[in-house]
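BACKBONE GEOMETRY TOKENS
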Amino acid sequence: MNSSIMKKILFILFILASVYSFGQTNIQFKTTHHNFGKIKKGKPVTFAFGFINNDNRPLIVEVATAECGCTTPDYPKEPIPKGKSEKIKVTYNAESKGSFSKKVTVKFADSDEPVILTIEGEVI
């Protein structure tokens, strides 16, 4: 194979690798699930989901949305530098008795797949 063709093939492979890596982020959560156990009615509870940015570029949380109004996410609004740890705090209002399982969807910039955080427990 001549060097001109080889260079073209390598260039195409480089472009494909770049396109594939775009949309992939390297975020490491300590956990994506938390069980509060039994909690008292009317006493909100909060859990902080810790994560670290292992990517080579700053990480941006575009949005974190809860599946209902009883759950409130609080997330960093500033870019998170490489190697820095941060937290997404999720608060459940505990206004209704019974078991609960709630999800928060976290969307990061330049990432195709959101991260799903789950809290659960029982309000007594």
Summary: Confidence is low (pLDDT under 50) at residues 15-24. The longest helix spans residues 3-21. The beta strands are 27-29, 33-39, 45-53, 61-66, 71-74, 85-92, 98-108, 115-123. Residues 25-123 form a domain with the Immunoglobulin-like fold (CATH 2.60.40.10).
